[in-house]
Amino acid sequence: QDDFEKKVIEIEVLKEKFKFPDYYGNNWDALLDIYRDFSWIDDTDITIIHDDLSMLDENALRIYIEIVKESIILWQKYDDHNVAFIFNEKEKDVIMTIFNGYNPYYG
Asked: Measured between alpha carbons, how far is 77 from 40 in angstroms, rounded to an integer?
């Protein structure tokens, strides 16, 4: 598989796993849009639990964590929803390294 095919498969896995709305665009920008607008969810308390992110390669994981980070920053400013992202403890070091530094998505 080339990088593009791999990216499409990874995003489709996320869409299926998290049950995104039908209008979701199957790309990283669309994922960021979805995470910044939870109007498609009636509940105000939203918790996204990640049991295992091993289906993502290193670059995809970095991009995904940066999207989560951007979403967290946004939701701290609004009270429409209480949004929490929970990750598996075994991935903590990798996730925190990405969260606290490297940003491939925004340059």
From this structure: 19
